[in-house]
Write a structure and sequence with these properties.
Length: about 500
């Protein structure tokens, strides 16, 4: 029986090597190149990690439209929400060291932390912050921090004004704000910023020498990709935006080569060389679903049977293997990291554009290593993306509903004033040479001209192109005496919800 087990074990081992040997890297390379063109991505760097090594690394396109420079495995990109796994790992280190516990109440460290009701405020734990289950809706409150000059503490103090979308621990709402909060817990416990702690405890030990926690570190660094906005369906270079203040939710800047070390470390279950940085208990809790999603179990031959969120990682299965990963979205850059730990296989894609085949390329890559039938994932995802864009009629519907040849109720100067949004602060409307200008107290990049749309509604014409939204309007609310009492925003998009502002007039 023992001999039989040994023979079977050897057979499985040899089978694994056979599959690896059959992977055609030239074919993968050609597929990636075609995907870049099909998706009109300015540039991207791709890495494949297998059995503790970076076995494939290549750049495609350009670091900036108009420049003849390809990215490579050392080119720096923002990884955005892929930073969240570093945050959860940092918390795990502190748990290992006895400096906090997963189920410690957040208020134990941040007394000012307040959510939508007293019970939730008092009961929210560190674990809750990292698993997106406090009850807020996905991306709720991002208008508070996005491009804002507010400190992390000031941002957190405004969360109390956000309404819940679910009952506490009864739903999934992806919350950048809760990861910002986790970053401040790290600061409170260690006396160091998120960036300082992550650099000291992960970046340096893992040899991630080019990875930095903010744009201020890029000044003297070469081989840095340029972010790109989509303007009139074309890629246009745009300046970097510093996210260091909210780094715990998405501030890390890295490269394929550096991130390969991160993947190797994670797939080696927290061990780096001879050092166990993360214990088995830490690894297990980070990769355990704390928030489960519905999966269609009626589908024919599904590749996925469960999906959920752990702590800083998305979790699912793929053809019977555990799948661990995350995506990231930054102003002008998107990224994806995916791992099949049982196969010791990982995939990294960093891009300097806003549309990319984030699920297609890891799926195609994993299929090649697993010996699955070939499937054009990129084509399928692109067709699905085009279909979604076509079906998204939010802006078209609003333009269609516009009532032409109407006039505002008041003279332009009457709309000028200072408005207060509890979750944010002051919003100012001023009159300049007969035009109304919109400005935000903490967010200079939100400045805009207000152009009459219809009745007391004005179109927001942003002074600068924005990554996540374009068209929008603001309605001045009047009482029965034609006094302006507040503002309502309508900016259709999936990320930054101006509708949450609900500003009232102060003067």
């Amino acid at each position: 029986m023992k001999l039989l087990r040994n023979i079977l074990s050897l057979a499985f081992l040899l089978a694994g090597f056979a599959v690896l040997a059959q992977v055609d890297y030239k074919k993968l390379d050609a597929y990636y190149e075609k995907a870049l063109k099909d998706w009109n991505v300015p540039g991207m760097s791709i890495g494949i990690v297998k059995d503790g090594k970076l076995v494939f690394a290549k750049g495609y396109g350009t670091v900036e439209v108009g420049k003849n420079q390809k990215p490579d495995e050392h080119t720096l990109f923002a990884i955005a929400s892929n930073s969240k796994a570093f945050t959860s790992a940092a918390i795990a280190l502190l748990v290992q060291e006895g400096k906090l516990k997963w189920d410690d109440k957040v208020r134990q460290y941040l007394p000012y932390f307040t959510l939508y009701n007293t019970y939730v405020s008092e009961e929210t734990t560190i674990r809750d912050l990292l698993s997106h289950r406090v009850g807020l809706g996905t991306f709720s409150g991002d208008v508070i921090w996005y491009r804002s000059q507010l400190s992390a503490e000031e941002i957190i103090k405004r969360v109390r004004y956000l309404p819940p979308a679910y009952n506490f621990r009864a739903g999934y709402g992806y919350s950048n704000l809760m990861y910002i909060t986790a970053g401040e817990v790290i600061r409170k416990v260690t006396g160091k910023s998120w960036g300082e702690f992550v650099t000291e405890r992960f970046l340096k030990p893992l040899g991630m020498t080019r990875s930095v926690p903010g744009t201020t570190y890029l000044k003297n660094m070469a081989n840095v990709a340029t972010p790109h906005e989509r303007v009139n369906n074309q890629n246009q270079p745009t300046p970097w935006v510093d996210w260091e203040n909210i780094g715990a939710t998405g501030g890390l800047i890295s490269s394929v080569n550096d991130l390969s070390q991160w993947l190797i470390f994670n797939m080696n279950h927290g061990i780096w060389g001879k050092d166990t940085l993360l214990t088995a208990a830490s690894r297990n809790i980070l990769w355990t679903p704390h928030n489960n999603f519905v999966v269609d179990h009626t589908a024919k031959n599904p590749a996925t049977h469960f999906r959920g969120y752990g702590l800083g990682w998305g979790l699912s299965d793929y053809h019977g293997r555990l799948r661990v990963g995350h995506t990231g979205g930054y102003d002008g850059m998107v990224s994806v990291i995916q791992m099949l730990p049982e196969e010791n296989l990982g995939f990294i894609m960093l891009t300097n554009g806003l549309q990319a085949p984030l699920s297609a390329l890891p799926n195609y890559t994993f299929d090649r290593f697993l010996g699955k039938p070939e499937r054009d994932w990129s084509k399928e995802q692109w067709e699905s993306t085009l279909k979604s864009k076509k079906e998204d009629t939010r802006i078209a519907d609003r333009k269609k509903a516009r009532v032409m040849n109407t006039n505002p109720s008041l003279a332009p100067g009457r709309y000028a004033g200072t408005y207060q949004a509890d979750i944010y602060g002051k919003i100012m409307v001023t009159e300049q040479n007969g035009q109304l200008k919109l400005s935000f107290e903490h967010t200079p990049d939100f400045s805009a001209t207000l152009r009459h749309w219809h009745y007391d509604v004005f179109e927001i014409v942003w002074d600068k192109p924005q990554s996540w939204f374009s068209f929008g309007t603001v309605r001045f609310n009047l009482d029965n005496n034609l006094n302006i009492v507040g503002l309502d925003f309508d900016v259709p998009n999936d990320d930054i919800f101006f509708e949450e502002l609900k500003a009232r007039r102060l003067k």
